[in-house]
Amino acid sequence: MTAIWRRELRSYYYSPIAYVFMGVVLFLFGVYDFQVVMTGSSYYIGQVYGIMFTWCMLFLPALTMKTLSEDRKNKTDQALITAPVSVTAIVWGKFLSAFTVYLITLAITLIPAFIIGAFSDPTWSHIFGNFVASLLYGAAIIAIGVFISSLTESQIVALVGTVGVSILLMLIDSFGSMLDNTFFQTVVSWISFQARYTPFTNGIFNISSVVFFVSVVAVFNFLTARRLESRRWS
């Protein structure tokens, strides 16, 4: 798994994908952080992550679109899945490489918060709550994106499919509120990513939400592994 992770991580930085993703996200973070400085109130630092959350979830599919679809398109997938390494290790290696790029990007966004915090007293629980929530939510989107990438050889299809799922997950609460059926409202509330994400933004660390997002990652990586396993024996 480590070898796969290293290879995939290098591939991100040998191509423009990681640089474009990091550049766009960090630029937008910089713009919003500058606005915080102009307001003269450190209270809004935590809200920057809330604003950037939507952008990050829309940009993340750019990291996952090539994870498995590129191998399939280049006909290198057979060599990969027949290599003396488990498909589970392959999937987790690819997932962790995309997650590492995302983690590095988010970690850099904390630098302005620490600088501003040196001259003021921001609400750190909100800042770190947003940071952790963005990591967990992002990890789930990455796992879903890797799974979608395993279903097609087109990076564009994988990109559009993952963006569509990401948008649906952000809007599902609105759909749930329009339902008159209590049962379906309960189901929507339980599977809602937004409902799990929101408490963190207020500095409330909910263990059940952590377990939920980790479970989503585990389930979709398992499904991706089974998808590759089926192709290994086909």
From TrEMBL:
Domain ABC-2 type transporter transmembrane: residue ranges: 41-205
Bilayer topology annotation = Multi-pass membrane protein
Matches recorded under InterPro entries: ABC-2_transporter_component, ABC2_TM
Subcellular localization is given as: Cell membrane
Gene Ontology, cellular component aspect: plasma membrane
From the record, give the transmembrane residue ranges. Answer: 12-32, 44-64, 99-120, 127-148, 154-172, 203-223
| One example GO MF annotation | ABC-type transporter activity
Q: What is its main location?
A: membrane
Query: One Pfam family name from the record?
Result: ABC2_membrane_3
Q: Which UniProt keywords apply?
A: Cell membrane, Membrane, Transmembrane, Transmembrane helix
Entry keyword annotation includes Transmembrane:
yes
Transmembrane helix listed as a keyword: yes
Q: What is this protein called?
A: ABC transporter permease
The source organism is Candidatus Caccousia stercoris
**Higher taxonomy:** Bacteria, Bacillati, Bacillota, Clostridia, Eubacteriales
